[in-house]
Specification:
By secondary structure, this protein is α/β, with parallel strands linked by helices. It has a five-stranded parallel beta sheet with strand order 2-5-8-1-9. The protein has a two-stranded antiparallel sheet with strand order 3-4. The N and C termini lie far apart (46 Å).
């Protein structure tokens, strides 16, 4: 079990369990093999790592591997999602606070940086960190010291920092001006790019087997194979939601195939795959990734209608900022 921190600051670590750590990154494709090699290299050091990848691609699994394959494996691993959190709440969770520091602070709270002494603090969606919090993050990274909110005592902590984001950080720094340049370079000493599912389609059969077993264990569904025709159709989907979307497809398909010995094409959800593969695709007809992404975004915008980018980003299971960045790169108008 991966460690967790509850609202009271209590935590569990891998060292608290007897089972050895097992990576949850699945696949044997060249892209995944390259990713594992890079993880193994950075895990041996304390160098700051920024993990970059699309929503649902498994960035949090990479962060966990880096921690548990390194020398800090027996110390706390503390993941925190920075997206959609206001300055005061994020500051309280990261730095802690003293009793009476603000309205609602009825007792002292120990923050992630303090709890993470000797271990790893993983900040997911770091690109969405509020601007006024970025200054405090820069200081704690430079000095490894901080004060709890409302406190005066300086606290030292030897933690490793790992971050992840699905936004284009260079655009956030240089174009949108929503992220500090000095903080970016402090966090992204090493950048790890997590491949999207469409970049490792050959891993889909292994992932189907894994998620089928998981669905049986966690939801009482029947573990069963996918037919070769179903797998072929899944291999032609664009997978905008990546591995997370694939997991949902497996669960849905198993539910729909209750009385069948295997998952058939008819049991797959209707997400465009069926129509896309009715006619065999010749090699010369294959679109490039940019062409496929262009068509997918245009389709989502059309389906979103008057609700615009917000609804399109929900349909594509990504953030508005990430979608806008992709649209700028592909020269797609919002209208």
């Amino acid at each position: 079990m991966l460690p967790a921190v509850d609202r009271c600051g209590q935590l569990t670590t891998q060292a608290a369990t007897s089972a050895p750590y097992v990576s949850r990154i699945l696949g044997s494709s060249p892209a995944i093999q390259k990713l594992r090699e890079l993880i193994a290299r950075v895990a041996t050091s304390d160098i700051p790592v920024m993990i970059v990848g699309e929503t649902g691609s498994g960035k949090e699994l990479v962060a966990a591997d880096i921690h548990y394959l390194g020398r800090r494996a027996d110390k706390p691993y503390l993941p925190k999602n920075c997206g959609g959190v206001n300055h005061e709440l994020l500051g309280s969770e990261l730095f802690g606070h003293e009793k009476g520091a603000f309205t609602g602070a009825f007792e002292q709270r120990i923050g992630y940086f303090e709890l993470g002494d000797g271990g790893t603090v993983f900040l997911d969606e770091v690109g969405d960190t509020p601007w006024n919090m970025q200054t405090f993050l820069l200081r704690v990274l430079e000095t490894k010291s901080f004060e709890r909110l409302g406190g005066k005592k300086t606290i030292k902590s030897d933690f490793r920092i790992i971050t992840a984001t699905n936004v284009n950080m260079r655009e956030a720094v240089n174009v949108d001006k929503t992220f500090r340049e000095d903080l970016y370079y402090r966090l992204a000493v090493v950048t790890i790019n997590v491949p999207s599912l469409r970049e490792r389609l050959e891993d889909i059969p292994e992932l189907l087997t894994h998620f089928s077993k998981k669905a049986a264990l966690e939801h009482g569904l029947t573990d069963k194979p996918f037919s070769s025709e179903a797998i072929a159709r899944l291999m032609q989907h664009a997978w905008p939601g990546n591995v997370r979307e694939l997991q949902n497809v497996v669960y849905s398909s198993l539910f729909q195939s209750t009385d069948a010995p295997e998952v058939l094409v008819a049991h797959l959800p209707d997400f465009g795959v069926k129509e896309a593969v009715e006619k065999p695709i010749e090699n010369d007809d294959l679109p490039t990734f940019d062409e496929a992404e262009f068509m997918l975004i245009k389709r989502a915008l059309l389906k979103a209608g008057g609700k615009g980018i917000k609804e399109a980003s929900r349909l594509l299971q990504t953030t508005e900022r990430s979608l806008k960045a992709r649209m700028r790169r592909l020269n797609i108008s919002e209208k």
